[in-house]
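Re-running V-type ATP synthase beta chain to confirm reproducibility after the cluster update. Everything else is unchanged from the original entry.
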Amino acid sequence: MKLQYIGLKEINGPLVVIDHVSSASYDEMVQINLDDGSTRMGRIVQIEGEKVVIQVFEGTRGLSLTNTVTNLLGHPMEIPLSKEMLGRVFSGSGEPIDDLGAIHPDKYVDINGKALNPVARTYPRNYINTGISSIDCLMTLIRGQKLPIFSGSGMNHNKLAVQIVRQAKIAEENGQQFGIVFAAMGVKNDVADYFRTSFEQSGAIKNVTMFINLSNDPIIERILTPRCALTVAEYLAFEHDMHILVIMTDMTSYAEALREFSSSKEEIPGRKGYPGYLYSDLASIYERAGVVHGHKGSVTQIPILTMPNDDITHPVPDLTGYITEGQIALDRNLDQKGIYPPVAVLPSLSRLMKDGIGEGYTRGDHAPLADQLFACYAKVQDARSLASVIGEEELSKQDKNYLEFGELFEKHFITQGFTDNRSIEETLDLGWQLLSLLPVEVLDRLNSKLISQYYDPEKGQELRNQR
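Result of re-run:
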């Protein structure tokens, strides 16, 4: 039943207050009718007795305290869903902005989603191939996983996001479809155009549903954007049996919108001014990933966030790390060297990687090879630290070997062209070629059978000759 109220008690920034309201619900949508005949949408964000606080999507300019008519619609925000949303571009609140007309929906669904019984979850298995060696080999993305990218201001995370969208695919399976839902929050016009143009030129747009919230759009739309995107992802995954990869950038912009929203409600701030419920709010987004019993599809998330001042202890990356299953960290020093993608190997990890790689998924040598590459690259950092103190000339022969390995590892394995799409076999073979630069006796994470099969000093010499 729709309820109608005339007049407002208070207008405060993007919020309006109505008194003497009965039977209102939290997150209920409202329609606000102005004197000039125009309408605006909003939602109830706070209820105190018979007083309700409404956040107006389009802002409160021009609203009258006496003549404004507010209709309570009796339902939360819903988004129309259809499989034809693939290949389309929407605003942050789900309105088409690609001039291709409205969606003909199969159904309308609450964007907040439904709580998923943990018992209904299936443990994530099998991997998504991104074509990027450092990710595929060392921090493999598993279907149903949430694996964030921790970046910094001015780094190439947007370029990396476009490359993942263009190249990502699942292992070949009969009848399995793959799609991507891309949500951009708080981006500038040129960045939004870059995403859209890149997807169109590469042809990836036909498998992508885009949600774009610009930096000058209302903050309430920014708060809705990831929820709209995930609702579409869940629909495609669990009703159309598709494997969906959701890429969301930038979650820091989302958190800042949440902080501004919390401040406008005069809530008591927590760390660095963020609301005390930031953890649970982020969890309500990140936990909408996974595989469900009885369904062939999956939802996998790659949230991208920029760390203010490259501080990994900042509340947004800190809380994100608690909720998600690992992280891909980008390194500013590598970025300044011109290395792309500047993936920092040592602080990055994928906690679900061990169960989605190996025989039957990637290749039997994947896990021990990744362990050995991690171990050797860690020793590279030790050798570099020692060289900075005593000088490279004073290093032992073994430390000099590690320095050479580190240089070639960054040049050939981490460094990869924007259009370079490597298969998992090419990536693993390149890893063995790099390990063949080192004496066989230091490869303590590999058994003799793997060494006899893949270790080849002549291939290592080929990399030396390319220096």
